[in-house]
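ok trying again, last paste got cut off:
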Amino acid sequence: QKYIIYKLDQYDFQEYKIPSEYSFREGTYGSRKNNKNAILCTWARTNHRINFCRSVCIHSPSYSVLNFLIIPKSQYNIPFFGIDFVSLPNYHLIVLDFQPSLHISKQFDKDLLRELLKMKDEFHQKVPMAAKMSENIVQFFSPGVIWSKLPKEELSENLINSNLYPTFQKYLDLYLNTLFRVKEVDLEVQRELIHGQIHYLEYRKSKDPARPMLKVLFGETFTESLINNLLFKMI
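nice, full thing came through this time. structure:
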């Protein structure tokens, strides 16, 4: 998370004020005899080229989460940037991608795809890729998606520590360089982008895989409010 803040500061991102009930939350889970605490922290930034970006971090004995999403303005034909680094009781889940809001051919030029695929291949030469994504979600990911599911064991920890951080840095650097290089598109493309972004965000609201975990840690009412009013909000 420190690197994200460092890079956003370089591009003059400003604080985006979020309601206080989402910025910090404590919860408890488990049995009465084995009660555990969980802490959720969020922050957000904005810029003239994005609607906003937000980070969600969860810390607890059983769960650890970094979820980060950049939602670009529809004047710029560029994908979302998404991170999900999640540690669950039995495994680690890693997702890192330029997540499309239009068909790949309309949003990724050959140079960008080539660079993404190069970084993906370098990472997955060392860190195994998870099973193939289901058809209903594959449309929301690019060919350059980093996608791994690793058992919680020492080998996995070593693979993550050695390979994930530098790959994440490269992805974020490339995304920000691309975001601040692209030119505005015409109104017809903007309308397509708005439709595509809404489709993506509505899907995430209804099918967010973190929903069960969030409900366990912080309750259903807070979870639904967080998902619908902050995490996948289009402003």
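cool. The mean pLDDT is 95. The two ends are 24 Å apart (CA to CA).
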